[in-house]
Amino acid sequence: MKIESSEIVETNDYRVLIYPSSRAFSPMEAKVITEKLFDFLGQWQAHGKDLSASFKIEKNQFIIICVDEEKEMASGCSIDALGKIMHEIDDEYQLGLFDRMKACYYENEEVKTMRLQDFRKALKAGEISHDIEVFDFSKDTYVNFLSDFLLPLKRSWAGIYID
């Protein structure tokens, strides 16, 4: 199910897994990804017990999985199963979901993605505006995701690259 239609309350601090694509999804890709995740999460289990999970596609480029671990903890095997379906999606559409050497930022109401090395150089050289907002894929709880997934450059992890 999608986060928007789930019983998850935004003030509760559930586990979040973020899969950043290197590009926006086409309408067909978003539809197929949504269907695959809906089917997978509907039967996702840890040690034979159903997991209460939901997802959403943020900014048409980021897949956000949310798990209510107050009901049942996601185990290593269940996380591996999620990784398997995400790898299948990544392989099918060449999305770069597991490439952590990229930076994504929001400028002029558009998500832009660069290799991390190029992003650092462009920031230091002043080729990218300091008025951008930067995405942080390290958020592991839903409250942190809501408050700190997209931050102004100076408050983000990338702020160390500017004077």
Mean pLDDT: 90
Biggest pleated sheet: 4 strands, antiparallel
The string of secondary-structure elements, in order, is: EHEEEEHEEHEHE
Low-confidence stretches: 1-9
Terminal CA distance reads 43 Å
CA-based shape: globular
| Residues in helices, as a percent range | 25-40%
Strand neighbour order, sheet with most strands:
7-6-8-9
Radius of gyration: 17 Å
What is the count of DSSP helices, taking H or I runs of 4+ residues?
4
What class would the helix/strand composition place it in? Answer: alpha+beta
Number of strands: 9
What would you note in describing this structure?
The chain is an alpha+beta fold. The chain contains 4 helices and 9 strands; from the N terminus they run βαββββαββαβαβ. The protein has helices at residues 27-43, 76-93, 116-124, 142-148, and strands at residues 15-20, 45-46, 49-50, 53-58, 62-67, 102-107, 110-115, 133-135, 150-152. The strands form 3 sheets. It has a 4-stranded antiparallel sheet. A 3-stranded antiparallel sheet has the order 1-5-4, with helices on one face. Strand 2 and strand 3 (49-50) form a beta hairpin. The radius of gyration is 17 Å and the shape is globular. Residues 1-9 have low confidence and may be disordered.
